[in-house]
Every structure is written in structure tokens, then in C-alpha cells.
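How it folds:
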Amino acid sequence: MIHQKSFLSALLLALSLSASAQLPALSEKPWLGHFVGHECREYRFGIKETGVMGLEVFSSKGAAMGFDKTVIFAVEIVENNGATKTIRRPLSEAFTTENAATNKPEKVTLKGKVGGNAEFELVIEFDDELMKLGARITNPGTLKNPTLQIRSRFQKVYHHTPEDKLEELTKKDRIDVVTIDKKRDKLSAFDPVDLASEKISGKGLTNLRVEMKAYEGKRFEYSIEGPGRIVLGNPGDVATAPMHGFSVIWQADAAKDPEGKARFVMEVK
């Protein structure tokens, strides 16, 4: 009876996992459980079978830098209710694709859904260190005035550094931005700032570069192709120092790009 119960429990667990994982997955390391695995000289980018996306930068020794320094990517649909906005994130069980799982991707297309039955399509193109992401809402569902954005989120990369060492350690860290009206600005990683403010994000950004000592001198460069804009955001929308985490957010412009041909471009150098 004990063996029968153990077998039944294992079977139910397996059925549960297979039911919730909508994307096909690779079965060999290091991409076990991933739908897509892309590796180049500077980083590796993976999409798990649940649709979770992350970029791990390689250290000077060729090893992944670890979870705290993983840059998280996510599609979000924003419901605009007058003075309030609600961010709706993808349901992990609702991702689908017509592509096979691969560790040599060139272009992949996923379809997903958020609460309110709104649906979207995500396209990612890979070319060595260069990655291009595009997305569009294909069905607004019951949401009011929905818009789509792709978030690239930097975590608290100095999480294990003593507070009294942070100012010296981050003195050369910087975020360089270029606005849509071609103005340039440089932001410190140490000083608290409201990244979403009119002064910083304004009408939107076209280019952005991130350099932080935590990433051993590597640069993250973001740009746009076609309609849309980039804005910045703090964790919890509270003005804090970027060293404690921040987001680079591409916002689609459905009116100018209904077919979703515009791209959010990211490169690590």
C-alpha cells in the first residue's frame, strides 16, 4: 500500500507539472526545463517552460554571475483606469507557441494571456550579443484602455555589500540616457532619484546605457527600433538609489504600430 501511495503521489505530481507547463522544454543541462536557451560570449538568456525570462551575465572567468545579478525580463499589460493603473502580468499556465524548444534560437514567437482574458504576442530575435524584443496586444479582453510594455529589471546587485562601502564601490556606476528630444543626462547609481519623473524619463527615452561595477565593467545598451519609447522605474515606484534595483521599460505604441513590428533592443558589451 505504501508503494502504491508513493507511485500515485508521483503520478499526480507529474500530471500536475505537465498540465501547468504550456511551453515545450529542453531536457539537457544547462537548459533543463527551458523553452529557449541562448548563449553568447557575454551572457546567456533563457525562457523557462513557465515563460519566466532571465539574462545571466558571465564573469571574467566565464561563469554566470548568479541570481542577484540576473536581469529579469517580463511582458506586462497595463490597464488604465483614469487616475489609476493596474499592471497585469502573464499567467504562467497560459503561454503557448508553435516553435520547438531550442538552444540555438534565431527568432521565437510566444502567445500569452493575463487576467481579464487579455492576450498578447511576444517575438524575440537573437543575433549573438544583440537581442530584439517586440510585442503587441492581440485581444484586450475585458480590460479598459490596455497598453503593453516589456520590463527589463535589474535587481539589488550590491545586496551583500556593507552599507559603508557602497558609496566608494559605486562611484563610477552610471546610467546614461538620451531622451526622445535628444537631450542627454547621466545618473548616479548611489543617489536616490525618481526615475519615472518628468525630469528623468520625460516624454520617453530612445537610448540608454548602464554601467555598474557589480557587472565587472560590462555595459548594457538599450535602444528602440520603430514607434514606442523607453522609460525608467524604481522598485515599488518609490524614489531610491538605482543600486538598489531599477527597471528599463519599453512601452509599445499600438496606434502607430498595430502589427507589433517595433523592437526593444538590448546588447551587452
About this structure: The first strand starts at residue 34 and ends at 39. The radius of gyration is 20 Å. Residues 136 and 258 are 7 Å apart (CA to CA).
